[in-house]
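Exercise 7.
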Amino acid sequence: ADRPNLFYPIFLKSNGEFAGVGSPVPLGANRQEVTVKQGLIAVWPIRQDGSEGNWQIGPDAVVNLRKLGYVKLGKFDGTNTSISYLKTGEQRKVKEGLFGAVTLGLAGHIEVSSKAISTGKVAATQWNLVAHSAADHGSTLLRAFVPSRQFPFPKSLYAVEDCLRFFVINKPNSIVLDFFSGSGTTAHAVMRLNRQDGGRRQCISVTNNEVAADEQKALREQNLRPGDAEWEKHGICDYITKPRVAAAITGKTPSGEPIKGDYKFTDEFPMAEGFEANAEFFTLTYEARNAVNHNLAFARIAPLLWLRAGAQGRRINKLPSKGWALADTYGLLSEVDQVTPFMQALEQALASSHALCLAYLVTDDDRRFQALAQQLPKGIEPVRLYESYLTNFSFTNGEVV
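Solution. The predicted structure, written as tokens, is:
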């Protein structure tokens, strides 16, 4: 009723090939009374609830776009099929050559090479590349890296790679944050991008260690609970994410076997070669306030300080006995009375072209922190260590109004 001129039949041959279109059927007319030539099948725009809907374009447009290869017929089940078409914006991109090599396939619609993703351009509305098949390059590929381990609906590695390419192709030192990392496809894709152009992109993957519902039931029957080692090893992070990332880097499965198969499309090489990359895995913990306040939990947060400073170079893993220490990209002052040698060391490091960017200062005195921050060399950001943690702790326990 909304678009009566867009309710018409599309005729197909018995093998599903396009055979033409019919005229719009007037409102109230019975579509079953439309004459269909012998050997042809009429396909109508019928909604899932069985009611009559409409196509998005008129009959003449279907014929014209079909000649150009801009109309695609889906899988034919003998009575019905899906019908999709390129919209005007995508048609323009084809004409302007933004998709690279375009050919007219045997099925009557255009086909784009999997290597023809244009860089630095807005993504197309429709992506129909073999590389983006989640079944072939998501589930099947994942099994090559972590055999016999199941994960529901992993994305195609190459689809994620192509998505990232639009945004980081000209940013070789970018940081990609994947806050729901699942099977680790994004981290894997970042490795591939770095290999292709020599980039040093980082990927921070965050996930929980949830155990699937059906597995939880079986584990509870064994009197296991969350937190037990036997329970946690079945969680998504320990069971899929970490082993998959490690396997991608080393080229070996968790059992130590070389991964079988080759990467495809943009660059092709054996998966067993792995990548010139590294990864480190951290587990979120909750530390007692006093332990943090008295520097007894420094080793726990040491990786986070290194991450915030860029995750490059040496890391300070324990409190320095002399009250201060320097790494490649940050410094730590744990005893404020050692500020003089600390500042001198910072100046010397900067003069030697070290990439220092942060200085972590441990003090519970606001005025002392401000005084120390003012003494820092230009370009180094001061961070008051533990301040956020201790403030949050106080709020949580009702100590601050």
